[in-house]
Structures are given as structure tokens and as C-alpha cells.
Amino acid sequence: MSKSGVAVAPDCITKFNDLKLGKSIKYIIYKLSDDYKEIVVEETSTDPEWENFRKKIVDAKSSYKGKVGAGPRYAVYDFQYDLEGGEGTRNKIVFISWSPDEGTLVFPRMTYASSKEALKNSLNGIGAEVQANNEDEIEYSTILKDISKGKR
Fold first, then answer.
1. Global pTM?
2. Beta-carbon neighbour count of residue 51 at 10 Å?
3. Nearest 10 degrees: CA dihedral of 80, 54, 121, 151?
4. 68 closest CA partner among 76, 78, 60, 56
5. Residue closest to 54 by CA, chosen among 120, 123, 144, 126
6. In whole angstroms, how far apart are CA 136 and each of 62, 123, 148?
7. I need a labelling partner for 123 at 20 to 30 A (CA). Which of 30, 76, 114, 133 fits?
8. How far apart are the first and last CA of the chain?
């Protein structure tokens, strides 16, 4: 359980293990349940196109007390990239915490921030972590630069 009292649904771990071990899932998007009491799987996909994944994250919405705003999300992406100098291909499982600076309601943003560690600590095998607060930080090239040099 997180500092915020939010629990991690068992399916979150099951789907992560499917991604990690089975390699059939390319990414998982997690969200807080509508009552903000549990982290749940919003979507899994086998689609390898980064831009399709990015669009789903950037376009996410959250609501609270009848108001709707930009939606924070967590995601895990099986990121594949080529090493410099033709030294081969690598995969790194990347944990992404998306919490846009603009248009996010305060309660969802704070609840996501205080619940992140509970999910992250439940997922054994994460190779890198990215905290993204604007759309530039979730560009393929930005993440590739960071994870290929071991910065995140």
C-alpha cells in the first residue's frame, strides 16, 4: 500500500510479469481507479509504435468531483534500441510516470505522486525510470538518449 493509502491491484503485477517474461506485451498503461483507492491496469498492447503509445499517455484524462483534467498515468514500456557503433540491440523495461504540468487537477496529481512508489516497488525487473511532466519529456528521442546512456 502506498503513502496515500492506494493499493496495487494484483492484475498490475500479473500483466507486468507477462510483459517481462512472455515478451508478447509491448506496454502497459496503469491508472488510478475511479474512486482513487487502487492502481489498476487501464490497457495493455502489443503495438510496437511509440507514437501510438505516447498519444494514449498524453491524451489521458482524469476526473474528480465532476471536473475533468489532463490525466496522470503510469506506464511500463518494453523499449528496444540499437547500441551505438552497431554493437547490437538492447531491451530495457522502462517505468514512466506521466504527470503533465498543465491542466491536471490537484487531487489526481497529488494522489498519483504519492502512490508511484507502491506500484514501482511491486514491479521487479524495471531497467529505467522516466518522470515526464511535459510532452517533450516523453518523446522517443528524449527517452532513448536517457536510457541508452544509463541516465535514468
1. 0.91
2. 10
3. 60
4. 60
5. 144
6. 21, 26, 17
7. 133
8. 25
